[in-house]
Amino acid sequence: MLITCPYCGPRDVIEFTYQGDGNRERPQPASQDLDAWNAYVYDRLNPAGDHNEIWQHSGGCRAHLRVVRNTLTHEILSTAFARGGHKSAGHKAGGHQ
Amino acid sequence: MVERQLPERQLPERLSPLEPVYHPGSHGNFEHGVDVILSETRPGSILQLAAWPGEEKRLMSGIYKVTGLALPDGAGGGVVNGAKAAFGFAPGKFTVVDEAEGLASAFTGLITPSIGTITDLSHGRTAIRISGPKAEWVMAKLFAIDFALPAFPLGAGRSTNHHDVFAQIQRTGGDQFDIYVFRSFARSFWKALCHASEEVGYEVH
Amino acid sequence: MSPRRTETGGRIDRLRTIRFTFDGARYTGHAGDTLASALLANGVTLFGRSFKYHRPRGLLAAGVEEPNALVTVLRGEVREPNIPATMVEIYDGLVAVSQNRSPSLAWDIGALNQLGGKLLSAGFYYKTFMGPVIGPLKGTRFWMFCEHFIRRAAGLGRAGTAPDTSRYERMNAFCDVLVVGSGPAGLMAAKAAADQGARVILAELEAKFGGSANWSGETIDGASAADWAARIVGQLEGNDNVRLLPRTTVWGYYDGNTLAALERVTDHKEVPAKGEPRQRYWAIRAKTVVLATGSFERPLVFPGNDRPGVMLAHAAERYANEYGVLPGERIALFTNNDSAYRSAVTLKKAGAAVVAIVDVRSDVSNEMSRLASQAEAELLAGHAVVATEGGKAQTGLNVRRFELMSGALSGDERSIHADCLLMSGGWSPTIHLASQAGARAIWNPARQAFLPPQPTQRWIGAGAFTGSFSTAEAIAEGRAAGIQAAGGSASSAPLPVVEAVPGEPDPAPVFEIKAKGKSFVDFQHDVTAEDVRLAHREGFVSVEHLKRYTTLGMATDQGKNSNVPGLAIMAEALGKPIPEVGTTRFRPPYTAVSIGSLAAERFGDLKPDRLTPMHDWHIDNGATMFAAGLWYRPMIYGLAGETVEQAYVREAAATRESAGIVDVSTLGKIAVQGPDAAEFLDRVYTNMFSTLTVGKARYGLMLREDGLAFDDGTTWRLGEQDFLMTTTTANAGKVMQHLEYFLDVIWPELKVTVTSVTDEWAGAAIGGPKARAILAACVKGTAVDNAALPFMGIVHGEIAGVPVMICRLSFSGEMAFEVYSGAGYGMRVWEALIEAGKPFGLVAYGLEALGTMRIEKGHVTGAEIDGRTTARDLHLDWMLSKKKPFIGSAMMDREGLIAPDRLELVGLIALDNRALDGGGHIVEELDAENPHDSIGHITACCYSPALGKYIALALVKGGKGRHGTRAFVSDPLRNRFGPVEIVSNHFYDPDGSRMHG
Fold this sequence. Notes:
heterotrimer, A: mainly beta, Folate-binding fold, 4-stranded antiparallel sheet, 1 helix, globular, disordered C terminus, B: alpha+beta, Gyrase A, domain 2, Alpha-Beta Plaits, 2 domains, 7-stranded mixed sheet, 12 strands, disordered N terminus
């Protein structure tokens, strides 16, 4: 499986670490809503189809990515930096798009 | 972080992590010609400069002011100029290398907290150079990235790894790459590099 | 001249003679021969014994799909079993042996199995070894009893036990177009793509490029097809954009157009060059793949179809045209399609007598009849072969009249004298890679074959792979595929002109002739047509179940010959059309792949070593090294004759007596920098860091999001926006990822950079009553007294002429200092400290003594922060700030995490003065025979020189409430039961007076 890192270009999946379901929302730090915390810490979507995921390019630039992946076909539909910004760095000096 | 320098004077030479396994001379299948040359370049300064989002241009101009290296735009863009080199290796992050020691202090006034951070990695990274007609071939044994010139242009940098060994790689010549690995892994990586080079014949400078 | 070698012809180098042995006998062949062709040229027709019945077997094929002629190649002590003789290129000194026979190939005692043929039918193992319900051989014991004998009798080659000393390598490749297969379609595709300027890799699993062009006898552009192919290969060789990979099998097609290939670099060489790998594993990332993998000719299923002398028709053509070898002198052919007629003509031209062509079709075209006459063969249309005659070699065959629609046989058997029978059951496109890439194959009733599916990845098919079996089609499709793959637009330039023997591609739908005798479907696993029907009768209707029950297609050839005939017979038994029965998905690898090639450069050296700057000193000074993750750390510096316990007790005692020094360079170190660094640390740690003053360090604890303890360490404030965080050695990577995740995903607004600086700093911890005096003796530029360097203070100075940073903190409970220098100076500073310590009795100590002193002091490590414990369990609740939220703060007070019966950290003292062991359980009752009701377990243990006792840290229910009580340690696996006293985890200097000095 190849994942196209917005910075590094397409790289083998072994360079990436799966960091879980990208649909989770962390409650405000001071929140005492235990249900919300439970949902954030333990609940994971597991769709058969397109899934929003967080991956870290841990064996490369180490950026975290938001990846939309089809869990049935392994097709990667899109990748983007999890952290906004650095837009100027979205293209490569050569080679990969 | 900025290493505090004592009053200006020559510091003793640093010990290379490769010392016991660094054997200058020809090795491997060299009877049929030496197709790669391996060396440790031992730069005096290896810095990581990181810009906050939106501050990349100011950081790059800071790099230009100190080193004279004009970084091209774009991910992984880099430039080499004799004793100095710089390249992007991650969003907003750059590696800047100088043969001379003490480059960090040159940046301290220039890269302010509003722009980003300076991290001195002069001891923490070991710089290994591979050059020669089979450099791409040998590198391709160790790293799953495309080393062909159109895909990896001169000066450009890449972050990748060889198994557990992180590496930043800069193309510093048509058939030359500088590889920056963590110092603790350097000896293991050097041995792997030598092993991979045996097939084509190699020389250690 | 060899008995079967033709006078001329073939593409072997007749001037070069090569000597090799097979089963100990010496043979010669020519450069360009395979082991199969060379042996056949020498008159060898018996190549192996079959899997179950030990039936004599000869060559069925000439290529990668060969199921019978499997050999073991020996290189010194190293054996490589189960290689098709058709894929072994001969070299001087090659030693090959046959398999699955005893004592010899010609006289195989296992052939007696044929007499018990009924017993060994499908499901034999399942049925026979269910076992009696009672008695000594109850259940699977009978199987276990018989296994030894059966494993010897049934099977393929034997794996060796000698270590494989060959070199294997991995290669990563990138290209625009990967062309798999180098027949006319593949060559055209590669050429067309290269002409468009694309980066092309052309992989051919055989030694020679050209595929069928090497033996088809056809003419392309006025030259022999083989010469044409050689010319195209020459053009490709001259193109810098093209990489030609001969002897390279593309065996896996994975997601993202990533393909795996195995290049056999030196298997055909007597001696590899220095540093040359035996095999190279290619990981190829191709923008587009052209699949030009051709097709396999199918055997026909009829009694005696496995006798040596029965061969696929094209294989005989290939032996004749490519190797100049005739597989027989009097040849008969048996076919359901036109392609065998070309084979007949070829063999006639090569000098064989073609005695008959038996065609199941009664209606044979005039063109084919003409070809039969050209071959001077008797044409027996509407006939089928019902038996073959002979022993280890064929002497003849019997034919009967055959009714195509009903499959009925009629009339008298007629016997034909022939030493070779060539069969052709139609052609199956080699769709394995396309199937691996994703989609299901599609049955084509006209071709009677599975054709490649619609691409689910970026590949384009060409030639016989797509079911276009003629060379002219292959050339046209190959060029179109190459252009398309390279992103060009279709060419109207004229195509190379092919002159070929005519023939229609569609066979008659006949797979099996039902007559008396064993008719083999899967030659390699000895599965007969009757086995397939038996499986059906026993209720196996799914093709996947059929496969597993009969083992059809599960041998090393993975059903390359048997897949379609087996399916057709199953479909007939079920009374369903073939597409409704389905086909199994092909999985990687396409052919057997050596484990060595997958391990590649990791062979023998699985993980990189991580070494500290002082590593060589430790080795030179007698350290026994211990692998901690990837790191190597000194365990003890043992003296001659010392046990491990004696060594660490000496080291720990000396440290508490005078001073000790330990290498702490492996501690994870993370630079946390930026305007929001302090705020970030407040969120990450349970305690406050924004209040830490510059030049001071603080002990910090991190929790996970779920409120459990995660990691601990000290963090040093080096500047207003500049912190140096230390982590445990084991968790350095995890903590780094944790911090990066929060900065990238959760709090992107924070201006903080985190950088691994573990390798930037060498660290030496020096502790003990004399530690300060030693430092004072060698540090310049700073004082190290209480005023200048209080507990948790940081100073900068110089040792041996290099800058150092010293922090006063303690893990051992003694007054101690961590001395950090640039890693390149680590050895220099270490040696200076050792030198300065000599007058004070300084000892170097290792992990064992480090662990001993931390247990005495009651500090926690990864053994206690085990992913199940909370801060409270570890008595670290004093570190949980109430002034701010932090990671884990919302979840840490959940009911289960504050329950009173949780395991808490305590100390244990062995009351029987015997060693305790990690993992031992704590029980309340004195019942060594039946220990029960564990109240906790030991996490770390040692002999404490400070207390003169065996002690341990443990996690025990009730924790502090049990201090001063007695319990028992129970460790039945190590036969340990004995009394312990439960005490505070702070065994040593509980008020910290030594540390604070």
